[in-house]
Amino acid sequence: MERRVPTKEEVLAYLKDDRNWGRWGDDDQVGAVNMVTPEKRAAAAKLVKTGRAVSLSREFPKTPAPDNPNPAIHYMKRNVRGESGGSATDFYGIAYHGQATTHLDALCHVWDGNGMWNGRNADDVIT
User: Fold this and answer.
1) Rounded to an integer, what distance in angstroms lies between the CA atom of residue 100 and that of residue 60?
2) Which residues contact residue 8 at a Cβ distance below 8 angstroms, ignoring those fewer than 6 apart?
3) What are φ and ψ of residue 13, in 5° steps?
4) Most exposed of 73, 95, 96, 113 (fewest Cβ within 10 Å)?
């Protein structure tokens, strides 16, 4: 089956015509997460058969690469308090946006000429 690449105008129409803006009210801040109701969570919990935990973690990518121009930074710092002890602290610096890490974007992550989620003005949302 041959697939046709949509035109720029068609893609822009998708972004306008298929929005959920206003679906959950003008003050909504969670978007489609509204669809994850207590009933849906209870139904999902009933699907559990073994209780096996599955890690979704990944190593922090610390090496620059084409898909990771801003690699993660990690260092530890020792805080000495003389003979009375001390502590150790971690610093993590992570640029989440790109292809090297997994993340969830907020509804204010991107916008177009019509604004952010639910038509909010970017200048009113971003500090």
Assistant:
1) 8
2) none
3) -65, -40
4) 113
pTM to 2 decimal places: 0.59
CA–CA distance, 56 with 70 (Å, rounded to integer): 22
In this structure, the strands spanning 73-80 and 86-93 are antiparallel
Q: Dig out the tokens for 127 from the structure.
A: 């500090």
Interval 15-36 mean pLDDT: 91
| Phi and psi at residue 80, to the nearest 5° | -90, 140
Q: Per-residue DSSP letters for 42-106?
A: HHHHTT-SS------------S-BTTBSS--EEEEEEEE-GGG-EEEEEEEE---SSSSS-----
Q: Which element (helix H / strand E) includes 79? A: strand 73-80
- DSSP H/E element including 114: none
Tokens of 20: 């959920």
Q: Which amino acid is at 42?
A: A
**CA 116, CA 37: separation in Å to the nearest integer?**
24
Are 59 and 66 contacting, i.e. CB atoms less than 8 angstroms apart? no
Instruction: Please give the structure tokens belonging to residue 59.
Output: 């190593």
Question: How far is residue 9 CA from its own chain's centroid?
Answer: 27
